[in-house]
Design a protein that fits this description.
Elements: H1 16-19, H2 26-35, E1 46-50, E2 66-71, H3 74-83, E3 88-91, E4 103-108, H4 118-130, E5 132-140, E6 152-156, E7 165-173, E8 181-191, E9 197-207, H5 211-220, E10 223-229, E11 235-241
Parallel strand pairs: 1-2, 1-4, 2-3, 4-5
Antiparallel strand pairs: 5-11, 6-7, 7-8, 8-9, 10-11
């Protein structure tokens, strides 16, 4: 199966700060931090983020943890390095990454949505488990599980100090509720500092699985997980290595 490669994370990666800047993540980070629990090594707590993207969420976590940020997109890592220059950045796929190290927290944010098959979710959770030290925490935050998905639209964007601008319309819909995916179509308008505007359509295929399946996959990875709902109606899975 050929995996879809949304263009945004590659040739359009430089526009990320105008789509999803760090200030958009302040409230979410404040909600997430208490869920992670006290670190097992409080004087030098470590966090590994799998699929860290442009580093906007990480920018609010680095005051609390020593961060290792990983992503499979070189363009997104380049954006994150500008936001989080003091953090370690590594190129790698969350399904196959093996660093030979363990961390107090392993975090997978919405990048998990690009796991569109059960085997891909299982591989990502196995990566998280193998990098989580005894007594540590694995946190996974999908945008939707099957029970919470609703079709709809969203829009936004920001202007740059140099006169550039970015606007988007997001349209999420599920053409086949019997399968494990849904579609997110984006219409992007990109304005250069000269005032020239171009339009780009970008289709993202994202995974959609029932909550019970998620919990089964955590268990198969050797993780004891629970789910709670955050203020935005999203499942937050918090897991511990079995026996902890």
């Amino acid at each position: 199966m050929t995996e879809p490669r949304p263009v945004f994370y590659d040739e359009l990666a430089e526009w990320w700060p105008l789509l999803s800047p760090p200030e958009h993540y302040l409230e979410e980070a404040a909600d997430l931090l208490p869920r992670l629990g006290p670190p097992t090594t409080p004087d030098s707590a470590t966090l590994l983020e799998l699929g860290s993207g442009g580093g906007s969420l990480a920018s609010h976590l680095k005051a609390h943890f020593t961060l290792t940020l990983t992503d499979r997109s070189p363009g997104m890592l380049a954006v994150s390095r500008k936001v989080n220059p003091e953090c370690e950045h590594l190129l790698g796929d969350m399904r196959t990454l093996r660093l030979g190290r363990r961390f107090d927290v392993v975090l997978i944010h919405d990048a998990i949505m690009y796991a569109t098959e059960p085997a891909q979710v299982e591989a990502a959770l196995a990566t998280a488990a193998v990098h989580c030290r005894p007594g540590g925490t694995v946190a996974v935050l999908p945008d939707y599980v099957r029970e919470t998905f609703t079709p709809g639209t969203d829009d936004g964007g920001e202007d740059g100090a140099d006169g550039s601008g970015f606007r988007y319309l997001e349209w999420r819909w599920d053409p086949d509720p019997a399968d494990d995916t849904y579609l997110v179509d984006y219409a992007f308008l990109l304005r250069s500092p000269s005032g020239a505007v171009r339009a780009v359509h970008d289709r993202h295929v994202e995974g959609l699985f029932a909550r019970a399946r998620w919990l089964e996959w955590f268990a198969a990875a050797g993780l004891s997980a629970r789910s709670s709902i955050d203020p935005w109606g999203r499942d937050v899975f918090i897991a511990k290595p079995n026996g902890q």
